[in-house]
Amino acid sequence: MEYHELEQPDNLSKKEKEDAMGAYLMMFAAMGAGLPLPIINLIAAVIYYFVQQKNSRFVKFHSMQSLFSQLPTTLINAGALYWTLQIFFFKDLEISDPYIGYLIMAGVLNILYFIFSIIGAVKARKGHMYYFLFFGKLCYHQVYKITNTSENNTVRNQPPM
């Protein structure tokens, strides 16, 4: 596989660096809207990605990485919100040890996500690449892989890889 060359910090414009940093700041969207709904952050990240994907690969990479890393956190937070609402509105459910454990796990996950997003935002603002544990490699392959596009649009059969 061939990949496009990575942009170097000196070759990136100030706007590109700020746009890449902005991708990580989508985690504050729900707080800015004043709503305790975990899905607001994900919606903001999706919108930001689709708006920014036409920019440089650097911005697209950071936007995609921010979006992908927000998916598990949003799902965990939605589960915690759903479980909490079930406890408060249905009398047959009560606060249990699994519920408390889930809330602790969700809290730890949110703290880790917050820390890594701030680090990612700072690195992106400096024009540096920062790869999240699971999502960095996936996003790098999606954004920087050179796809073979034929000029005459002929179909070429390829052996399995």
Task: Explain what the structure shows.
With 161 residues, the protein is mainly alpha-helical. Helices cover 63% and strands 0% of the residues. It has helices spanning 14-24, 29-33, 39-52, 57-89, 97-125, 135-144. The longest helix has 33 residues, at 57-89.
Could you name the key traits of this structure?
mainly alpha, 0% strand, 161 residues, 6 helices
Shape: globular
- Global mean pLDDT: 84
Proportion of helical residues: 55-70%
Structural class: mainly alpha
Q: Strand share of the residues?
A: under 5%
| Strand tally | 0
What is the CA-atom radius of gyration, in angstroms?
20 Å
How many H/I helical runs? 6
- Helix-strand pattern: HHHHHH
Reported for the largest beta sheet, the result is: none
